[in-house]
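Student:
Attend to each token:
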Amino acid sequence: MRQNSTAPRNNKLKPSSNLIMNGSVRVRVIRTLLAIQNGQSLSSVLDPLLNSLHDGDKGFAHALLLTTLRQWHALARLLDTLADNPIDEVEVRTTIQVGLVQLLYLEVADHAAIHETVEAAKEIEFAHSTGLVNAILRKVAKNPSKFRKKCDKKHSLPNWLAYQLKQDWSEQYDELTQGLRQPAPMFLRVNSAVTSVEDYQHALDGAEIDADIVELTTGFNLANSSESTTATMLSTKGLRLHQSTAVNALPDFALGTASVQDMHAQLAAPIINKALMAKLIAENANTDSDSDESNNELHILDACAAPGGKLAHWLELISANDESSLFHVKQDNAETSPVTADIKVTAIDNEAPRIERIRENLQRLNLSQHDLQQADNSIALNIVCADATRWQHGKNKKAATNEPVFDAILLDSPCTATGVIRRHPDISILRTEEDIEQTALLQADILHNLWPQLKAGGYLLYVTCSILKQENVEQMQDFITHHNDAVAIEFTEDCNWGIAQTIGRQCLPIDSTSGDGFYYALLHKTAE
């Protein structure tokens, strides 16, 4: 994506491939920031940066990089007021912003912040700018609290995004834009097939890691076989750490006992799993319990599945030895055998490296196909590298028609990811206004391709990590308008998360203890 900064567009950066991790800590951070402005993601450059440093420097480099990104646009506006003339060179602007972060947010000693930043300008071969860098930083160092207030007064987002958020969330705008500047809390999902949230909290206590149990309640009216609805409730529990912790310090993390997953992301698998159970119960309510038809084959799809967190959560729920498992669904008049025998799970994503991430995550959680085959259940897992806008189960990619195959679909749709800016602050630099329209069109293409592959009576859960209505509720409104067999399932007031929309619910990343910005809409497919 094109560079999105206050610097002139015709001022080209050095090619991203020239990223060299040497020099002082500040120089390496500056080069990393330049690479991000040139289109590289934070996730692709963070590890190279940290791996190039001694252990004692990693914490400072991480804080300097992430804080600079979080305050990027506010710092750019402040810089424009501090300079007598426009600063056109991206490298110089970036160097000064790194210096400002040290003075305003990291409480680095004035002399160290100024001297080291001036030296960094020399190291990146912009020695001609040292006088300007020195003058601006010294001016700020004389009254840092004044300039910190100026920097914090408004948002730290590109103006186009701030404007759109003002249109979409006028009542929450101030809280939302300030919340996006803060670090996100760290949440854990506990593998319910292995242990309970309460027991894992005790294990964390033993490792001197403080964590609170967070419980989200979801209420919705699910369709049943008589075309009426049934009030349904479910509870989702996770853990919020008081302080972010390296995963290798978490008890039994390598054994798959827990995963790092945002609390709002942890809603996806329980919701679609509960809907699938409702479909199963409704279908078997009219089936003789002694009939072979009561042993159903269920086929479910996780579309756009990478990196596999929601897929893993769904597999954990399916295979858990409790009421969340599909193997424990019974008819009202059944006392012994469950009504399901075989569950086929298909997961697709369109990039081979992302497919590998799915496999790695499932391997750690003991949820690979081999693990599932060894377990006492009947789950077949198939992971496919495919384009969700064209892929059709069991057919050629360019097939003209498709047929209903799936009982439930979890669509973790591509989006602008504006709801996770706290975790990935580079998004506010990399995204452009044009991305919204392009992404919405991509989402619509995926929905139109997958919907015909859902059986009548089935459910599709549409999820994004966006906070823009065009990608969320407006997308759903348009979809239902063009699909007479799509009915939106109502989330009730029993939900203790999110904001009710005309279709679905929207979570906003407003405070320091909340989850990220996620949108959820549950669709039921009726018989035409």
About this structure: Residues 1-17, 331-336 have pLDDT under 50 and may be disordered.
